[in-house]
């Protein structure tokens, strides 16, 4: 393949543009039901259409790893029922409570629980499930409930093994019963559902009965048992391969469900699995988190929850600790933050019941699967036609007396041949025809995708990438551009404050508390301690542990060095209202009330944005000083200077506020907007987050010392445009300062101000977008897709969800990513590292390349086997028997897929252009290789079939015909073994490179050779073979080995750049147009 930088000037694939993006004029794409470029968000009718069009012999196996459309409908119906049931229970409870109030009836106090806790499981589950606020208040509210559960609302539970054990015993664990995976015998049963195998089993039974009747028990059972054994072997090997795949998918599904989250135990925040949560746990909640269990809100600020996953209503519900404190498992935090007390886990929650009743799906089909079903259908139709021709010709020749027996006499003589013999012969003819169908219809071809995907997904886990959606694996191989975050992806995510400016001085070093007056330090650390979602834990030994986002940890660590006592500050003063940081406004604030009733409103955020709201700065005498124009310019220059050195700039400011103006009503307080004008600047800090030293980017393309990949990297960050520029230069996204001009370097607000047409015009030139909002990222993704790009996007925040959903491949961050972002993504990058993104690209390209290797290998066998059998019927017989063809099918289908579909990725893959979504599955290179090998095999084996006895000098030897047919069978199989090596490297001369590293490939080759020797030398009666001497073995090996130098010669033959299929498309389009 040729590749060059110029291909990105207009579109990623030249003229091969995406129909769905509205860029193609070739309407014939829509004619094929198998032409689906993306199954992500594909209409159900489109998915149903290709299923109906596919030629399928074993539906249960073929569609095992596709979306079960009926089950999906049943799941939605069940969800609606459960939601309606839950709503009805709550409505009934509210009606009962209202009636009680009207009639003056008071409910009886709840009965105390037994065991180690003051409340029992049934009672607490009832309160939580029915959202019974009255019952909660009777217990003394959240504080009273925590006492009954022996939970400290500040420090959480003790969390030792004994405590955890008691809580699980009393209230259950946060798990739910899952449906057991299919057993091995279920896979055996499904593999035996193949229509052709069923026919062969029936034929084997008929052959066995007729054989015993005509030839006696001693010899009559050979043919029937041989076929039955061969069929059984195919079934067992197929079932074993499928069973291993299913185990891999089960393990990956377990990983997807195993969410890691923080809880507060014994005064410190610890990270645990969602399965380890117990009733009584205190869990902090932030924007984007999934509520991991049922619970009640302890405290929160502007907390809003999306309950659509449980209620079915896309309505954001605001929560408070008095009127609406109940939180349902499985819901998402849409805004604000807070802490919750866990009251129900596992099957004692509605979410747990739902998960227990809904079986795990397999994620749906992939575009490559659909296309391979189309290929398999086409080949199957050809195979059925050939089998029908063979059946017709053999039957006609038989009844016309042209089919000769072993003694040279006609097998059928009208009026003389017994009916039993005729029936036996016809069964054999039908068996051969059906076996041709088995070989011709590549039932395993679409399943080779799931085989290579299962292998790739397991290996990608080791490379720190968890695949949530199967199709993302292969789509990543087509990616032409990656829109990447900066923080933690291109940088190390190891942030430290390295520079600090106050209104009156530059602090050097930045954590020198002696340079700051105590009152100044006091107001500064008060804002840092309250205006954060992080926390500080100090152990009895004095060890300090800081948790939170990397930016929060950096600022908290800096404040600790300035003398901040986190716990003391949080206990002395209280947060009245909170405005959580969000990526749209780039800042967050908090109103803090001190013991003396003074109120300070603290703000922290992007330096130039917070500075823009400042009208004063605090001087060394702790007095607010008017922000003059010169001082503002001086501070802006300081920000630009830090940003130019790739520092993240954060400003900290505050203002006084009158306590009597703060709303006292909880509803009004939740809607109160924190004042953000007339701020007093306290400090501007520069935070260093070093670029990853191994970041594989050069001149905006992915590369390393081993490869140069034509995959463009675009950095989309919320940071200052100067910081973005500095990091881009350091990472290699920008080659030099001369590149740092519009539109290559652009600010988010500028990009969003353009019209759609203008955005489409410049989107391909953009390399860096600074100060961008999540909506800017979405607009960029949409523009790039309209230009025909296959776009991968990285994101970690809740607001990144639309861009992750819109992108062809959404990549969320495993460490910093929210649960909302992860749920919308296709792949989770577990270490937040750009190198892991590059590895995902390698695996994506490997999936596509491995499938192409398998297709080339399988089609060569298909073509050769069909042509040999069709050409040979002129002699009245086929050289390959049913048992032999079943063995060839096993090599081709299951063993071939295992050997070739599990090839590890190589750097050579990254030197290629991205695989186009419209690129044909069978390339011109593959057609060339296939034609060369198939023609060679067909020619040699047909010559042997018609002239083999004389060529092999068998004229006067006994069993000459059987020896000749055995040589044909043996040579044919050995040709496939040699050709398997050729298929490893379709476009490279060195076919042995890395072969010893693929232990599975070497193992399967060895197994195939050993089994072939056993079949020829020891199973002659079953396989219709005869022992060969060493000369015949050498001849067979010699015939097979010629395929290696022949492959080298074939690769020297040039192929046209335009795909063969394109000529047919254009001609068909012209015919349609003229019609």
From TrEMBL:
Membrane topology: Multi-pass membrane protein
InterPro entries documented for this protein: ATPase_P-typ_cation-transptr_C (IPR006068), ATPase_P-typ_cation-transptr_N (IPR004014), ATPase_P-typ_cyto_dom_N (IPR023299), ATPase_P-typ_P_site (IPR018303), ATPase_P-typ_TM_dom_sf (IPR023298), ATPase_P-typ_transduc_dom_A_sf (IPR008250), ATPase_P-type_domA (IPR059000), Ca_ATPase_N_dom (IPR024750)
Catalyzed reactions per annotation: Ca(2+)(in) + ATP + H2O = Ca(2+)(out) + ADP + phosphate + H(+)
Domain Cation-transporting P-type ATPase N-terminal: start-end pairs: 141-212
EC number(s) stated in the UniProt entry for this protein: 7.2.2.10
Keyword set, alphabetical order: ATP-binding, Calcium, Calcium transport, Calmodulin-binding, Ion transport, Magnesium, Membrane, Metal-binding, Nucleotide-binding, Translocase, Transmembrane, Transmembrane helix, Transport
Listed transmembrane segments: 195-212, 224-243, 375-399, 429-455, 1000-1020, 1032-1050
Stretches for region Disordered: 1-34
Subcellular localization, as worded in the UniProt entry: Membrane
Pfam family of the protein (one): E1-E2_ATPase
Ion transport recorded as keyword: yes
Function of the protein: Catalyzes the hydrolysis of ATP coupled with the transport of calcium.
Similarity comment: family membership: Belongs to the cation transport ATPase (P-type) (TC 3.A.3) family. Type IIB subfamily.
Protein name: Calcium-transporting ATPase
Organism annotation: Brassica napus
């Amino acid at each position: 393949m040729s590749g060059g930088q110029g291909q990105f000037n207009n579109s990623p694939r030249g003229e091969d543009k995406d129909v769905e993006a509205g860029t193609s004029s070739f309407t014939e794409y829509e004619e094929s039901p198998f032409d689906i470029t993306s199954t992500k968000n594909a209409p159900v009718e489109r998915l149903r259409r290709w299923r109906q069009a596919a030629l399928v012999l074993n539906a249960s196996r073929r569609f095992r790893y596709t979306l079960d459309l009926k089950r999906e409908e049943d799941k939605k119906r069940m969800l609606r029922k459960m939601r309606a049931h839950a709503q009805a229970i709550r409505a009934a409870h509210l009606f009962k409570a209202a009636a009680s109030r009207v009639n003056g009836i008071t409910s009886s106090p709840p009965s105390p629980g037994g065991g180690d806790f003051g409340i029992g499981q049934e009672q607490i589950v009832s309160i939580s499930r029915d959202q019974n606020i009255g019952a909660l208040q009777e217990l003394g509210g959240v504080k009273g409930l925590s006492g009954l559960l022996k939970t400290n609302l500040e420090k959480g539970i003790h969390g030792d093994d004994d405590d955890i054990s008691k809580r699980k015993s009393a209230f259950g664990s946060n798990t739910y019963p899952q449906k057991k995976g299919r057993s091995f015998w279920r896979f055996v049963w499904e593999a035996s559902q193949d229509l052709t195998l069923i026919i062969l089993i029936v034929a084997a039974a008929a052959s066995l009965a007729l054989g015993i009747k005509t030839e006696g028990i001693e010899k009559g059972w050979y043919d029937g048992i041989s076929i039955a054994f061969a069929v059984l072997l195919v079934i067992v090997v197929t079932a074993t391969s499928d069973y291993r795949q299913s185990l891999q998918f089960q393990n990956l599904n377990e990983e997807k469900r195993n969410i890691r989250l923080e809880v507060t135990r014994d005064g410190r925040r610890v990270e645990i699995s969602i399965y380890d949560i117990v009733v009584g746990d205190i869990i902090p909640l932030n924007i984007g988190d999934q509520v991991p269990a049922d619970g009640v809100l302890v405290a929160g600020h502007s907390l809003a929850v999306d309950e659509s996953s449980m209620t079915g209503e896309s309505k954001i519900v605001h929560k408070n600790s008095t009127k609406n404190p109940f939180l349902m498992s499985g819901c998402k935090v849409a805004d604000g933050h807070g802490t919750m007390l866990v009251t129900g886990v596992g099957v004692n929650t509605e979410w747990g019941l739902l998960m227990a009743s809904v079986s795990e799906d397999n994620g749906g089909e992939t575009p490559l699967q659909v296309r391979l079903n189309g290929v398999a259908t086409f080949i199957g139709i050809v195979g059925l036609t050939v089998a029908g021709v063979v059946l017709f010709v053999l039957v006609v020749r038989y009844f016309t007396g042209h089919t000769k027996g072993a003694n040279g006499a006609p097998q059928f003589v009208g009026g003389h041949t017994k009916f039993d013999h005729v029936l036996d012969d016809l069964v054999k003819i039908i068996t051969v025809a059906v076996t041709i169908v088995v070989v011709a219809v590549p039932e395993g071809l679409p399943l080779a995708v799931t085989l290579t995907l299962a292998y790739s997904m397991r290996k990608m886990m080791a490379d720190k990438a968890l695949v949530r959606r199967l199709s993302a694996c292969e789509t990543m191989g087509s990616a032409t551009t990656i829109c990447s975050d900066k923080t933690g992806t291109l940088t190390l995510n190891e942030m430290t404050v390295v520079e600090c400016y106050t209104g009156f001085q530059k602090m050097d070093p930045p954590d020198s508390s002696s340079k700051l007056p105590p009152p100044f330090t006091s107001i500064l650390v008060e804002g840092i301690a309250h205006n954060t979602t992080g926390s500080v834990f100090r152990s009895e030994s004095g060890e300090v542990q800081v948790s939170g986002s990397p930016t929060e940890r950096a600022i908290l660590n800096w404040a600790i060095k300035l003398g901040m006592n986190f716990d003391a500050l949080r206990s002395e003063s209280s947060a009245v209202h909170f405005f959580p940081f969000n990526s749209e406004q780039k800042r967050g604030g908090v109103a803090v009330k001190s013991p003396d009733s003074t109120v300070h409103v603290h703000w922290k955020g992007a330096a130039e944005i917070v500075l823009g709201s400042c009208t004063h700065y605090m001087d060394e005498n702790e007095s607010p000083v008017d922000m003059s124009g010169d001082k503002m310019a001086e501070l802006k220059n300081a920000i630009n200077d830090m940003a130019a050195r790739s520092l993240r700039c954060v400003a900290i400011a505050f203002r006084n506020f009158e306590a009597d103006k703060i709303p006292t009503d909880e509803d009004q307080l939740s809607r109160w907007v924190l004042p953000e004008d007339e701020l007093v600047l306290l400090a501007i800090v520069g935070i260093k987050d070093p670029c990853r030293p191994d970041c594989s980017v050069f001149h905006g393309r992915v590369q390393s010392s081993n490869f140069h990949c034509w995959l463009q990297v675009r950095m989309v960050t919320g940071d200052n445009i100067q910081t973005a520029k500095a990091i881009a230069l350091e990472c290699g996204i920008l080659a030099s300062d001369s590149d740092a001009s519009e539109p290559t370097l652009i600010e988010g607000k500028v990009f969003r101000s353009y019209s759609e047409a203008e955005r489409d015009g410049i989107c391909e030139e953009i390399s860096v977008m600074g100060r961008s909002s999540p909506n800017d990222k979405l607009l960029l993704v949409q523009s790039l897709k309209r230009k025909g790009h296959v776009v991968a996007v990285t994101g970690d925040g809740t607001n990144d969800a639309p861009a992750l959903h819109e992108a062809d491949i959404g990549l969320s961050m495993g460490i910093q990513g929210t649960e909302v972002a992860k749920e919308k993504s296709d792949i989770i990058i577990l270490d937040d590292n750009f190198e892991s993104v590059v590895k995902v690209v390698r695996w994506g390209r490997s999936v596509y390349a491995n499938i192409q290797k398998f297709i080339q290998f399988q089609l060569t066998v298909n073509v050769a086997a069909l042509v040999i059998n069709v050409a040979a019927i002129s002699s009245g017989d086929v050289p390959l028997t049913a048992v032999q063809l079943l063995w060839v099918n096993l090599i081709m289908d299951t063993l071939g897929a295992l050997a070739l579909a599990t090839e590890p990725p190589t750097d050579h893959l990254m030197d290629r252009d991205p695989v186009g979504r419209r690129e044909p599955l069978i390339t011109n290179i593959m057609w060339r290789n296939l034609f060369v090998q198939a023609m060679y095999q067909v020619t040699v084996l047909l010559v042997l079939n018609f002239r083999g006895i004389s060529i092999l000098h068998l004229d006067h030897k006994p069993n000459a015909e059987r020896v000749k047919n055995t040589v044909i069978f043996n040579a044919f199989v050995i040709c496939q073994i040699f050709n398997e090596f050729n298929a490893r490297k379709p476009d490279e001369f060195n076919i042995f490179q890395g072969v010893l590293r693929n232990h599975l490939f070497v193992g399967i080759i060895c197994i195939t050779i050993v089994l072939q020797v056993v079949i020829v030398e020891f199973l002659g009666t079953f396989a219709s073979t005869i022992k060969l001497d060493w000369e015949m073995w050498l001849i067979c090996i010699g015939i097979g080995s010629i395929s290696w130098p022949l492959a080298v010669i074939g690769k020297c033959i040039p192929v046209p750049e335009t795909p063969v299929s394109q000529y047919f498309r254009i001609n068909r389009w012209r015919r349609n147009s003229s019609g």
